[in-house]
Known about the structure:
Layout: H1 7-12, H2 40-48, E1 58-59, H3 70-86, H4 93-102, E2 110-113, H5 116-126, E3 134-138, H6 143-156, E4 159-163, H7 169-179, E5 184-187, H8 202-212, E6 215-219, H9 231-234, E7 238-242, E8 254-258, E9 279-280, E10 287-288, H10 305-321, H11 323-342, E11 348-350, E12 362-367, H12 372-381, E13 384-385, E14 387-389, E15 396-400, H13 407-421
Parallel strand pairs: 1-13, 3-4, 3-5, 5-6, 6-7
Antiparallel strand pairs: 2-8, 7-8, 9-10, 11-12, 12-15, 14-15
Helix pairs in contact: 3-10, 4-10, 5-6, 11-13
Amino acid sequence: MKSRRSFIQKISAGLAIPSLVSFNSPTRTTPKSISHSLQGEGYWDEVRKQFPLKENRVYLNNGTFGPSPQVVLDALQTCFVETNSSGEYGHIEPEREKLAAFVGIKTSEISLTHNTTEGINIMCWGLPLKSGDEVIITLHEHVGNALPWLNRAKLHGIVLKPFEPKTTQEENLELIKSLVTAKTKVIAIPHVTCTTGLVFPIKEISAFARSKGIFTAIDGAHGAGTFDLDLHDLGCDLYASSYHKWVLGPNGTGFLYVREGILEQVQAYQIGAYSDLGWNMYQNPPEFKGYVPTAHRFDYGSQSLPMMKGAVAATDFHTEIGREKIETRIRGLNQYLYDGLSEMKSMLVILSSPESESRISMVTFKPKGRDYQEVAGLISKEGFRIRQVPESKLDAIRISTHLYNRKEEIDNFLKSCQKVLG
Ligand SMILES: Cc1ncc(COP(=O)(O)O)c(C=O)c1O
C-alpha cells in the first residue's frame, strides 16, 4: 500500500482518527450506481455506500460471511417476487453460464452447489481411491475440508498425510513435493487457509501434481472473489467454493469446478433430475442411459433461480468494479492492516505470513501473555466483528477485510487493539 502512514505516528501527531461514536448512524439508503470517475479512497467510499452493512459495528469477518451489496438483495427480492407471483420457477442455465465464466471455466465444468463443503464432499467421494492410497492435506483445515476426508479415510481406508504449513510459497511447494510417495493420489489442500489466511501456490502445486499423475482437489472457500481467479490458468483438477464469502452473494450458493479432462474419473454418487441421459423403468432390466457429459451431473433436482440470480448479481458487481482492481484493493487493505499490527510487536505475535504473496485478505495474530478469548471479547466490545481462531491449536484472532472496509476502520481497529493490549 503506497500511502500508509504510520499508525503510531498518526496517533502521536494527534491526526484525526474518527471516534467510534461516528459509527452509530443507522443503515443508509444506497445510491443506484457507483461513480467510476472517482479515484482513491473517494472511490472506495462510493463502493461502501452500495452496502446496507450497518455502521454501528465495524465488520472485519468477511472470511466467515460476506455481506451483500444492495444490488444482490434487490436481485434476490425481485426474482423471489417474480417466481412466486407468476408460478414460473424458471431455468438456471443462463446463470450457470455466467457463473462459470466468472471463474474462467466452461459451462460444462461447473456444478452448482449450496456451499463449499458440499463441493468438497462431491470431489472427495468422487475420486477413484482405494484403501492405502495417500492424500496430502494440511494441519490447518477448516472442518469443511477436514471431515469429508476423515470420513472417507474412516470408511474406505485411505491414508491422510497432514502437514504443518511453512510461511512462504517456495517452502510450501518444496514441502508438498517432499511428502509425495508412490502411494500419493490426491493433494487436498486449501487455496487460502482459514486459520492464518496463508495462500498456497496452487498453480505450481497443480503443475507438479499433474506431472506425477496426482489429483489436486482444492478447498477454494477463500479463493473466489478475492483473487482475479481463472481456474484454467490455476490448473487444478477440482476446486470447491461458495458465493457467500468473498463474492458477496447469497448464503446457500456455491460451486464445484471439475476439469473437463477428469470428469469421467469422478464418480457421481448422488444424482437426480438433469444428471442423466435418460432412463426407463419399464424395460427389463430397467435402463439408465448414463450421465450427462458435463459437471451438471453432480447437481440435480430443483434449483433456486432467485438464489442463482443473487449469485450472478454479486459476480456482476465484481465485474463492474473490475476484478483486478478488487484484488489490488483487497491486497492493499491486507498489507495496511499487516503493517499496522507489525508496529505492535511488543503486544502481539502475527501468525500470518510476512511474505505478501502468501497473504490476500486475512491477518491472524495472537496476543502476547493474554488469553485470546478475553482479548477478542474486549475488541468486540469496542465495536469490531472479528473471529477467534481456536483451530490448529492457534488460540488466535483473525481479521478479514474486503473492498467495503475503509482504511479509517482499520486505523480505528488498531487503535482499539492498542487500548486493549496496552
Ligand atoms: C477454508 C474453508 N473451507 C471450507 C469452509 C466451509 O465453507 P462452507 O460453509 O461454504 O461450506 C470454510 C468456511 O469458513 C473455510 O474457511
